[in-house]
């Protein structure tokens, strides 16, 4: 490891590697989940047990991708649940409350991802009690109870069968598509008449094109990753933004989201241009794998991403609690 400390990566629950100085002057690495940070010491749960490191003894530290679940290229090596945890890091909620391995997320109702229970792993209690806890969490916040569930809608699991029996209905089946870091050279130059801009925060013009406008609470979610970039495409003869996209980072991964092109500017290669700029940005930050999420019903986008080199990795969907009416 280079002697760089990425304190922003050292979030409880993250997988990290921490190089630290021992009392005898030698150095060692602690690799595993960061399970505690009291402001003075870090506790890393390693394969050999917990390692407590004084912050003053840290020489280098960074987040690292989850341990691979299978032998494969990095973008294929994680299982579906691991990848769901990775994607969560790119779209974080203001409130994140653990329920066993599950994570209850809320952010004033902006987006399903930020306001749903990530039902990955073991909730640490019987399913009926876990579902009741989810319902209570969202009821306390005036939000409809919603779960993000790994797998396709028609893929039976103990959780989906329990939810179906309790009247929870499926919504928005989504593909998670992945790729190795793609070659951006064939996509290097914008078409004549267009210019590409890159910013660390979304401009007013960027926000006006994405979803037709985004409230301030949505900007918080868009800027919630460890690092992100916002790409805009303009015509050189006009100030209007005609295409946008967002890139975000977690250890080893570049996430692509919010790719939008004005209806009257489609089929001009602008989405590909946005993709190239996002990939270029991710490459400068050592991302080795790329993911995106697209609903199964969006066949046009699925075809475009497939042509760009993305393959389906896994699926997830939402389940909504029954309403009183």
UniProtKB/TrEMBL annotation:
It comes from the Bacteria. Residues 174-325 form the N-acetyltransferase domain. Transmembrane segments: none annotated. It holds the Pfam family Rv0428c_C. This is GNAT family N-acetyltransferase.
């Amino acid at each position: 490891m280079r002697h760089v400390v990425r304190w922003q990566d050292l979030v409880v629950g993250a997988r990290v590697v921490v190089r630290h100085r021992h009392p005898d002057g030698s150095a060692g690495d602690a690799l595993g989940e960061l399970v505690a940070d009291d402001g003075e010491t870090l506790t890393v749960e390693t394969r050999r047990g917990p390692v407590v490191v004084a912050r003053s003894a840290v020489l280098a530290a960074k987040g690292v991708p989850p341990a691979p679940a299978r032998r494969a290229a990095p973008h294929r090596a994680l299982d579906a649940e691991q990848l769901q945890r990775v994607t969560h890091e790119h779209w974080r909620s203001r409130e994140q409350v653990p329920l066993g391995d599950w994570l209850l997320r809320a952010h004033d109702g902006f987006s399903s991802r930020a306001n749903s229970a990530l039902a990955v792993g073991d909730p640490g209690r019987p399913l009926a009690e876990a579902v009741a806890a989810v319902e209570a969490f969202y009821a306390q916040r005036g939000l409809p109870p919603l779960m993000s569930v790994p797998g396709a809608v028609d893929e039976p699991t103990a959780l989906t069968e329990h939810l179906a029996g309790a009247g929870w209905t499926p919504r928005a089946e989504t593909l998670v598509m992945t790729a190795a870091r793609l070659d951006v050279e064939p996509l290097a130059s914008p078409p004549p008449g267009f210019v590409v801009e890159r910013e660390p925060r979304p401009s007013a013009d960027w926000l006006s094109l994405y979803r037709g406008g985004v409230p301030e609470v949505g900007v918080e979610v868009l800027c919630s990753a460890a690092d992100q970039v916002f790409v805009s495409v303009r015509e050189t003869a006009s100030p209007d933004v005609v295409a946008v996209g967002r890139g975000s980072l977690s250890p080893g991964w570049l996430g692509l989201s919010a790719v939008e092109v004005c209806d009257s500017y489609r089929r001009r290669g602008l989405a590909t241009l946005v993709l190239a700029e996002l990939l270029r940005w991710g490459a400068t930050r050592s991302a080795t794998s790329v993911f995106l999420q697209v609903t199964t019903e969006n066949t046009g986008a699925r075809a475009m991403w497939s042509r760009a080199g993305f393959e389906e990795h896994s699926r997830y969907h939402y389940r909504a609690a029954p309403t009183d009416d």
